[in-house]
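Readers outside the structure-tokenisation community will struggle with the description of the input data as it stands. What matters is that the chain and its backbone geometry are given together, residue for residue. For illustration, here is how one protein appears when written out as sequence plus structure tokens:

…
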Amino acid sequence: MKQFLKHAGVLLKIRLISGLLLSAVISISCSNNSDTGKDPEVTTRGSFEITGRLVEIRGKLPLNDLYDYVFVFKYEVLKEHRGTAGSDIIYVGHYNPLKPRAEAPDERVKDIGGNLDRFRPGDIHRMALEVPVDDYYMGGIINRYFEEYSGPVYWAVWTNRGAK
């Protein structure tokens, strides 16, 4: 009986260690995807997919209490995953940017989202994009770069946090 209990104890320890190792592997693999911002939405939506650093939010974001709007931000392209941006700097319009991306869709704009909670210069975002913004949104667009930049403004379809 003692021999049986000894073997049962060893088997229990092996199972416990195996379970802990499996949990660690799953945790690491899940955290790697969230660190890169890669998920099934960002990799399939839009015509372009990039990882970029938010360079600048020019001016203060208006509150959303009176109207919905798109605000244009300046990004440095760090990596092109799908499509070609054609420039190291791009300008991206985000719908109602004061809202977390998961809460941004509404009756007017349904097909947007992401896991980003707020925009801060210097942060890295993985985004699915379309171009030009005018083909995807008819409404107020606040673009404080219009005097210095006349190229395309991208429409942010899906915006996730990315790794620094």
